[in-house]
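Troubleshooting log. The previous run stalled partway through. Resubmitting the same two chains, unchanged.
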Amino acid sequence: MSNAAEVSLETAENAGRRSHLVRRMLKNPTGLFAIISIVVILLVAIFAPLLTSQDPDYADIRNILASPGGDHLLGTDSAGRDVWARLVFATRYSLMGAALATVLSAIIGVTSGLVAGYYGRWFESLAAWLTSLIMALPGIVVLLATRAVIGPTLWGAMTVFGILLAPAFYRLTHAAVVGVRGELYVDAARVAGVKDASIIGRHILAVVRAPVIIQAATVTIIAIAIQAGLGFIGMSDPNIPTWGGMLNDAFSRMYQQPVLLIWPSAMIALASVAFALFASSLRDELERSGGAKKLKGKAKAAAAAAVDTSGEPPVVHAELEESDAPVLLEVSDLVVGYDQPDGSLTQVVNGVSLAVRKGEVHGLIGESGSGKTQTAFSILGLLPEGGRVAAGSIVFEGDELSEKSPKAMRRIQGKKISYIPQEPMSNLDPSFTIGSQLVEPIRETLGLSAKDAKDRALDLLAKVGLPDPEKTFRSYPHEVSGGQAQRVLIAGAISCEPDLVIADEPTTALDVTVQAEILDLLRGLQKELDVAVLMVTHNFGVVADLCDRVSVMQNGRIVETGPARSIFAGPRHPYTKSLFDAILEDGAARGPLAHAADRNTNAGGAK
Amino acid sequence: MVRFTLRRLGAGVVLLFAISTIAYLLLYLSGGDIARTILGQSASQETVDLKAEELGLNEPLIPRYLGWLKGAVTGDFGRSWFSSQPVTELISSRLAVTLSLVIGTIIITAIVAVAIGVWAARKRGAADRVIQVLSILGFAIPSFLIAIALVNVFALNLGWFKPTGYVQIGTSVTGWLGSVTLPIIALSIGAVAAVAQQVRGSVIDALRQDWVRTLRSRGVRENKVVYKHVLRNAGGPALAVLALQFVGLLGGAVIVEQIFAIPGLGPISILATSQGDLPVVMGLVVAIGLIVVLVNLVIDLLQGFLNPKVRLS
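Second attempt completed without errors. Output:
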């Protein structure tokens, strides 16, 4: 019962979106141009007999190749036929031919795609085989052969072409259906006893409708082109005027009356471009998901002025002992934001200040969406597309980083500041061996020879505790486990002797048992190399394990900061306290924060 | 690797067999009075019957087809019914001409499309929009219309190239270049548009991958990140589109060759199919089918090179 309600709700939502789509397309100049052109061409085709008083097939042999004017608006062709009348009727027949091919291929392709995708089994393998068979056939040769078989008829050629183009729809529909076949809502509908036909109609057709329309426009373009091409080489239906036939006649008289080439060419080009722009603007509207547009100078300045760093200052714990280690990294009043299409700035970091001393481990803790990862990326100079440092400074060894170009940053990345990512498997290039990915930065940054770089890479792999460095060196990323991949990434991070390692939740994506091993490894390496670490995490266990100093982040702000021991002994900010309370209530270090993370994944753009 | 190649070749042979069988059947059904067509209306019935006997037209379908198949397997496709030339000879010289056009087009397409696609993906913004619109136009306008326009502008008005004719590469390299430049440009524009779109899309996708950030964080130069890592990962889908273009280009070449009067497979396909010259048409079907199978095999092997996961499965 509730299922049926959900279904109708969804279709209503779809209908709303569709009308919205058409309206948006009409607002967009390319979409508007495409729709107007298509409507005009269709009107010409429909009302062809009303647009000319001349007979398109009447040949006045005393008046061949007449110039435009008088009775003949566009002159006459090589047989003395009125060019305007032929053009108008050619539009009608050429479009009908293209429509025949498109509709036929859509019907065959979509139906077989739905059946093969939804039911699978033998029909799917047969369809796949037929598809590759048809796609291996060069269309034009088949069409020429068809002409030899059934004679020069436009409808025959377009019927065959419709069949040849069916794979275009089949592939699309099949892929879409396979994609949704396993979706929960389809299973739910099936379990609820909804009939297959109505599942296909309601859920699956809704998914493929827009792509099918786009594909139909594309197929129409191809049909127009192939039809005109056949006509052009003299293979068109001699009984009806077509664009291709007109082109053939005009081409043979190119030296006497070149203007004749223009009319059919212009119509073919206009129709093709109109359908292509229609397809592309429909696709654009479907894909539009609020991607940040480039801002004009003024808007950008306004956005920069609108930076908001208001909020309470953080609770600062007193130093337990004065450290004499020099400050390596000093971030002050950092604001990170993403430009929005309307010119505003969505801030994800709102005035963060923190300092990391040489050889110190600084924990940056907070729930997902609190801006800790964005802070880390802005220090690395690797904010995602659309993000930028809107205010504040990042000073590293006396150098201002936030104003450096990506090229200048590249000299600091790896060599001075390096990075350990969260998700080990997605952070290795799947197309290259692990060895080559380790060697590349070593050679580039440290300038070692190929052999020395390889030796160094093997040493590093041994150092991070991989049992068989040679084997791992030769492996591709998909051949190692997640824990091994994270060890490889740690090896990469320390490969060029950095002064600061930024570790972004380095254990979150790993199994619990592996987590402990990786933390041990990090602790050992940090001691051995005396490297400073900025440890981004949501796990107080990690902080307790590794960190000398902690900053707690909430909503893009640091709410409490100080020596780790002091904060553990007496958290003062309510948010920090709630994090501790949650750990104590649940008993598990990760539990409550993981819940908080789930709640907040939708709230913030940051991660 | 070897097993993979053999399996693909096996599938290709099955495909070729299926295509040629279907083609033979269709041509057989459309037969008509071929002997009469060859000899003309004035020939007597006896000579027509003799001709039909000579060509084996009176035999039933199955033995006729098996006879053809036996020859085809050994590379003998018989003789043209109209010119009596051996089909293998007739096709092989012209095939080289068409292939030089198509391969030239593919090379130009790959280079230009990668350059444009990567550029658009990195620049985005206004430059990207311009590229997008241009590639829509390039995709939409048929290659023979572009060819007609090129002939009019560069051959007839500016006189930079000869409007028609083909110079063998053996006769004169510059002459050959002059005779293939306009056809290759005409064929390339649509292919470049399609492939550049795909390159742009896959490069944008690849640039968003996590490992791109990690590579940058290691201090790897941006050009190396883009042209070595991103492009290799984006190469698979682009190659697939390039392979589809190859099949399409064989068709496009038929028409473009007609415009430039280039003695490739185009003119002979048109002639043989309109005459119903079965041995030649069958030879063409097999030759083109074979090229398609081989190109797809090469593309599959390249995919394996680009993507190690494909290599394993």
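Takeaways: Residues 102-275 of chain B form a domain with the MetI-like fold fold (CATH 1.10.3720.10). The mean pLDDT of chain B is 84.
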